[in-house]
Structures are given as C-alpha cells and as structure tokens.
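Example (one chain per record):
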Amino acid sequence: MVLDLLAEISRNLTPLGLVIALILFIRLASKAKSLNSLQAELSIFVVIWVAAELPRALLTTGMIKASPDAVMIGLLAHTLSMVAFGILIVRRFLKLTAKRR
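Predicted structure:
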C-alpha cells in the first residue's frame, strides 16, 4: 500500500525532474567556452538523453498517448544518445592517449 503510493508519486515526479534536468543542462551547454570542452560535450549528451527519456516518462504516467511508431522514435533517440556517448568516450580517450605520445 505505502510502496504503491511511493511508486505513483515517483512516477508522476519523473517528468518534472527530467524537465528541470533538461533546462539545467541546456544552460550548462550554452555556458561552455567551446563545443570541444568536456562540459559542452557531456551537457549535449545529457540533453539528448533527457529528450529521449521525457516522452517515455510521459507515456508511463499516461500524460500523453502515442502510437507504436512514436514510441520507436523515442527508442531511436535513446539509442542515438548512447551511441553519441560511446563516440564521446572513444574520442576523449584517443585525444588523451595522443597527448601522451
């Protein structure tokens, strides 16, 4: 009973938390000195990730209804954000190892 109530509250607060995170990371990305800075790269990654997670959270709460095609677009955006994160990590690693040579 109490766990169900807590689950419902957290499910309903998730979209709000995602919107707050989206705003904060957009601001962080815009304040970065360069697009090549770690701050900018990580912020842009998190913005893409949150943008992909927000529709899923809204679907879970029942705030929006979507077709299976729209759900797949969200999954695609999520997958792209994970690929972008992998590229970011590999690029940073290669840059770090190139400096040591």
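Caption: The chain has three helices and no strands.
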